[in-house]
Write a structure and sequence with these properties.
11% strand, eight-stranded parallel β-barrel, 2 domains, alpha/beta
Length: 374
């Protein structure tokens, strides 16, 4: 039984977001109200197979985040085969292939959502990835796959840091896919039917085309059409796009008949988003009709002092994992925390200038009149 088979329905998951769902953010989400399933930010298969060790940092995770799925992107089936076995070797609970990123750089390389235009290549990538997962489960060693000794040492070091052991038990990991409605027009029914031929455990559909990027409203009627195509195949369909509350998530499930929802931007500055997911699921089971629910139902009450404490803790986690030299990437998270309370805009402006946890603590102390979040 795979991790997808064990998840409760409807599924509430943390969507992968490049540059956002890093190890520190995911740890905060796990601590504040763990989702049913978590995805890493995506990692290029080329970086895994032949990039410098520092690029493996996107695959750092903690045991508290389980079940956790590693998301990969690229366009070379041979590299996907090798990278899939690294994902297994690192002890993840699943592997997701990104066929939905609309970034110009990613799409221009033929990866991400650009694969919608090359369906044969998409199939080759999925078959190679699945073969890599199967071969590792059957006992194949990554030592013979052409990795440099330093990469093998890196993998074992990452495992030891996380679990105390350099190796993980062998098991067969499920394959999933995250994609979009189409490239420049909606072709989701034909596209999902094509993907189903490979037999993935789950497909997440974002409700926009590549050309739309994140403009306009997500088309959940098209997601519903994808769910209908997959019905009875054994593949779960999850929806993604414009979900800002757990009530939104339940309404989308009800309207589209998907098995779950991945939430992305709704969690920014709100790692507690999933805290009341069990109450939401219980309401789903007992009430049936969720249309009358107020949008703020199950929204956790987080005081300003609690928000400050969580924000500083997040900054500490980030500095410990990424170091001071990369701390500027934490500023966007700090900005997302600074909303919905008096003088939030002024505080946010100062957070965009910080360079360390000490700087964050100083801004918080100034705002609170005392070090209320340390």
């Amino acid at each position: 039984m795979s991790v997808w088979d064990a998840l409760p329905h409807p599924i509430f998951g943390l969507a992968p977001m490049d540059g956002v769902t890093d190890a520190a953010f995911r740890r905060m989400v796990a601590a504040q109200g763990r989702p049913d399933v978590t995805f890493t930010e995506f990692t290029n298969v080329s970086d895994i197979c032949r990039g410098p060790e520092r690029l493996m940092s996107t695959l750092i995770y903690s045991e508290a985040e389980r079940p956790i799925v590693a998301q990969l992107y690229g366009k070379d089936p041979a590299l996907f085969y090798r990278a899939a076995q690294v994902v297994c070797e690192l002890g993840f609970d699943g592997l997701d292939v990104n066929m939905g990123c609309p970034s110009k750089n990613v799409a221009a390389s033929g990866s991400g959502a650009a694969l919608i235009k090359t369906p044969d290549l998409a199939h080759a990538i999925l078959r190679a990835t699945k073969q890599g997962l199967d071969d590792w489960a059957e006992g194949q060693s990554i030592d013979g796959l052409g990795f440099k000794p330093s990469r093998l040492d890196c993998i074992r070091t990452m495992n030891t840091a996380r679990t105390g052991s350099p190796v993980v038990p062998r098991r067969r990991l499920p394959l999933s896919i995250k994609t979009r409605l189409g490239f420049d027009c909606v072709v989701v029914e034909r596209w999902v039917e094509h993907l189903l031929a490979v037999g993935p455990a789950a497909i997440t559909v974002h409700g926009r085309t590549l050309e739309q990027m994140y403009r306009g409203a997500a088309d959940w009627s098209a997601i519903a059409a994808a769910a209908k195509v997959a019905r009875g195949t054994g593949t779960l369909i999850l929806g993604n796009g414009d979900v800002h509350t757990l009530v939104d998530a339940l309404r989308r499930v009800a309207d589209s008949q998907v098995q779950g929802v991945l939430i992305g931007r709704g969690t920014l500055g709100a790692p507690w988003f999933f805290r009341e997911k069990e109450r939401a699921r219980e309401a789903w089971r007992t009430q049936g009709d969720v249309t009358a629910l107020p949008g703020w139902a199950w929204e956790p009450r987080v005081s300003i002092a609690q928000r400050m404490h969580i924000m500083v803790d997040h900054a500490r986690q980030y500095e410990a994992i990424a170091g001071l030299e990369r701390f500027s990437s934490m500023r966007k998270h700090l900005g997302w925390y600074c909303k919905g309370f008096p003088r939030a805009a002024a505080m946010r402006a100062k957070m965009f200038q910080v360079c360390s946890v000490r700087d964050v603590e100083a801004v918080v102390a100034e705002f609170c009149g005392e070090p209320c979040a340390t």
